[in-house]
Amino acid sequence: MPDAAVIADDTMGATWRDVFGHDHPYDDQKDGIETAVETARDGGFVALEGACGTGKTMLALTAGISLVRDPDSDFERVVALTSVKQQLRQFEADMRTINSNLPDDHRSVSGLTLVGKADVCPYNREGAGGIDDENVYDRCEDLRDRTRGLTGDGPTTAEALTADARSQQVGLADSGSGGATYLETADSPSPYPEGMPESEGTEYCPFYAQYLADLPEDGDPAEAVPFDFTAAGHLTPDDLVARAVEHGTCPHSMMGAMLGHAEVVVGNYYHAFDPTTTGSFTGALLDDSTFVVCDEAHMLEPRVRDLVSEAVGDRTLRDAETELSRVIQPIQFDEGDGRDNARADADLIRGELEDSDVTLSELQSTREFIRDLRDELDRRVTAHLEREHRGWKANLNDLPDEEIPLRDPETPEEDDISEWAEREGYGGGVWVRAETVGAVVARILNEAEDEQKQRAAPAAGRVLGEWYRNGHTNYFREIELERTWDSTEPDGSWRRAYNASLSMHNCVPSDAIGEQLAEFGGGVLMSATLEPLDMFAEVTGLRHIEHEEDRPVVERTYGLDFPAENRESFAVDAPKFTYQNRGSPPSEPGQTSGEGTDQRTADESNQTRQTYSDAIAEVARSPGNVLVGMPNYAEAEWAAGSLRERVDKPVLIDESSGDDATENLKDDFFAGESKVLVTSLRGTLTEGVDYQGDKLRAAVVCGVPIINTASPRTRAVRTAYDREFGGGSGDGGSRGASRGGFEYALTIPAVRKARQAIGRVIRGPEEVGVRVFVDERYARDSWDSVREYLPDDDEFQPVSPDMLSLGLDRFWSSVE
After folding, report:
1. What's the whole-model pTM score?
2. Residues 335-356: tens digit of each pLDDT
3. Are 510 and 541 in contact (CB under 8 A)?
4. Last residue of a domain, one of 504, 525, 544
5. Does residue 733 sit in the same domain as residue 640?
6. What is the distance between the alpha carbons of residues 66 and 44, in angstroms, rounded to a whole number?
């Protein structure tokens, strides 16, 4: 196999036009590519808003690949990140287009899509070998450790293990017991049986054994790859699995071996911003030789906020306490237990402790702290349920998810759990040392039990340490109650119905985002909905990079360049679609909403809903497929019920579900006759989904999908943004921006969600369609108007509800 790190000389010095995958770029694409290349050469970033159909993916890949192939550039790879699985496929499709249209004397651009073990493990993909989605990570680590153990001493080698696995398969065929049954996945047969093979009574992974057999003692792990991946173009996960299993080697290990040599690596935000993932897998990609592309970058802030927030569940604390006891007890009972195995356990534990800086008394104090912490958690959860849900013990199945704040969300101060610990005499030492103690406990148990697995003590210890170290201004702490069911817990215990977590939310992740972005040599952050770009630069840390590191940040906004006569856009001046105006959604179509309120309020609610029902129905009668976006799934259910009584089209409803169900729903929507698809604006069908051609002719968005402003966490985020960026409480803001926390935390993200849905309609120069916002906040200026946040607001004509039908009829008549 040729050296994976070397690209053929005839590919070097490629201009961006050599790499661009189509005959002619749009004018905006040309400007964007040249801006990105020039900015990256200076170590900078481009923040780019491009309307749907701009060709942003091709733009960013072209800019990055041309830099990688330029001998005068220091860039060695492109790392493309997105939060939407659909967009992973778009990058893969554009890579195929690029490779299909390269000049004849150019080598294919090598690429790789990163996914988790569950997606590439042959056994997990086929439900074989006792591996499934629930245990794949633990089982993988254990099998890898067992495989290495079998090859470590004695005559057994990795080659012998793989040969043995193959011979077990042949032996099965020779036995006449029904013929050979090979494990097959990604339409490719492997040389191994469907069951997990054994050697010396120990299970092992033959795919990993083959990887170890091919791995050079001293050298690049890429030499263990049994095929020329530098000439294979872009490898999707299925491509990788197919090639790996054909050679009997481990796909996930192949992914790691190829990681540093692919010219383009496509992944998700975890691969650059999750501390665990970067620490164990992708950290080598985070340097100044990488050109980074952040797609769907309007989601960068909320996604990274989740990744850099911390939580530890009550069950994890329980398991950590148990693990500590399993290490402590053998030493405590050593003197009274004459059994040889007990003495051996105690001696092993003493030896491990002597090799560490952790003492027995420290183990005991950590266990006592965790036990008392669980008791305090129990007391607080019980008190909350008694206060908010009297009689809760008799109605465990009806309890909702809950947040229990541990401080006033609008007053940054020490949280109640930290204050409790101080009163009980648990100082900073026990918090901070918990991670080290947990790591030692895990090492002892793995050694004693001869089994490598994820232990609870290190995870619990890490979060407890962060709890103590992180401040209270930008971090908000609370108890989260998540609905679950554990029948092993006693009747009447909240633990039967809930898993409670001590959660610590990073309210303002701009520093975490900016620090990670600064590791890259430059790049593009892009989306169809980044405006206002000045706010985006603030919340992602780009402005800090620009000012403190003197690296350029260039902003570009590209609107719809397609023929204006092919589209019509309305902002319907309807009453605000807020809970106060609309009330609760009726449980059945046609049922009166607002039950339990006075008659005037109920009448106003009915009138508001009637206005929206009329507007949705008018848009839904448009020729072709129609997308309806509602603020949440409950309102989507109401809208679908209303439409089924009013339009002569099949009405599909999207519910909160997994990827497979969503893909099936999308396929149903695209197939056959025209339909209406109703979904939540916080679902996955309004972002990153390709509705090109005749797949969508109209979209209507109802209301501004602002999240629950009463949530303690939301109030804490809003307060933190006020303090960080100005315009609200606190010291007036450290960075002088004029907007307040409500706009940063709530309004702008909501408008971006709405714009994402509307943007699905027009994606090419030949496409025809209608875009409709329904809510007075889109239609006119007022104290809570969002019209200023629509970059193309001049296109959205304000119309009264009774004039919408006329406007739609005129447009469809003109284009038909």
Report:
1. 0.88
2. 555 555 667 778 888 888 888 8
3. yes
4. 504
5. yes
6. 16
